[in-house]
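Notes for week 9. Today we move from apo structures to complexes. The key idea is that a small molecule is not decoration. When we ask for a structure prediction with magnesium ion present, the ligand SMILES becomes part of the input, just like the chain. The input block below holds both the sequence and the ligand string. Read it once before you look at the output, and try to guess where the molecule might sit.
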Amino acid sequence: MEIIRAQNLTKDYGHNRGIFNVSFLVEKGETFGFLGPNGAGKSTTIRHMMGFSKPQSGDVYIFGKQSFKNYSEILNNVGYLPGEIALPTSDNGEDFINIMRKLRHLKNDDMLNYLIEKFKFNPKLETKKMSLGDKRKLAIIVAFMHDPDVLILDEPTSGLDPIMQQTFIDFIKEEKKRGKTIFLSSHIFNEVEETCDRIAIIKDGKIVSTFTTNSLKHNQNKTFDVYFSDLKNYKMLVEDITSQKKYINVLNKDSNKLTIKLTINDKNINKLIAILSKYKIHEFKEDKLTLEQYFMNFYKEEKDFGGVSYERGNKSGKSNKRLQKQ
Ligand SMILES: Nc1ncnc2c1ncn2[C@@H]1O[C@H](COP(=O)(O)OP(=O)(O)O)[C@@H](O)[C@H]1O
Ligand SMILES: [Mg+2]
């Protein structure tokens, strides 16, 4: 069952800024990741989903209803965690929670109490003394205290320390298990890879790839790094695989470091092992295609291709975990 649909959603702010023909579909119970660096268009897309902004062309629907025209209904049924949180300065957490409870006409406090407990939030803490993590916790509590079926989170963990980040990831996983439909924008690879069923990569306001997380994990083409202790064996293997073995694709070789990076289809792995067994090898390990490497294909090399490829930039493994707009 379809819960969220964006169809050619466009908002042109000029100078190539904004979002352009953004289309995606989120099914019931699915966790959908929206991955892109700062300025890619994540928050703009989300603001349209929530009905805060009017699309220039195209549209976005939640529960089959146009977001902009059904703004208040969407707010009732959806939990939204904004990227930037502005809290009133004079209150403590409890005051703010109570204001939001009244606004929402909250009748059942079960989820509210659960969230306070889960995030070990101190409601008596003054808002002005809160750290970024405390504020994010409070925002999560008020965003989801009505236990909505749909959760929309705009970069929920950015700026948080790894422990706090893990608490948020755990919460997303728990909600996913409870059957919630989740839309998560992020620029942090591991949280998207860990939680999402499907991922869209957004670049300069356009979706450049949409794929299932599983397709990354079960790619048929595997890449291996082979390490040698001596030049003789290194050279013998290079000669062996480059002369006749067409099913082995050498991506990179380095006679100083005595390493070879190669790619092979799953079905030929036994053949590869048979060849390797003839030589003295120091180490042999798989270089798994990570979301980060896949993502970098779009961001580093300006290369656009559909589906999952095993090609990868050699520098990709060294790239920053947190991206800035390039
Ligand atoms: N209200 C606005 N007016 C003009 N430009 C905007 C506005 N909102 C966002 N932008 C621009 O649109 C682009 C996408 O922004 P945004 O959606 O906030 O990106 P993200 O959330 O991925 O960091 C950026 O270049 C940003 O400067
Ligand atoms: Mg944003």
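The chain has two domains: 2-216, 222-286.
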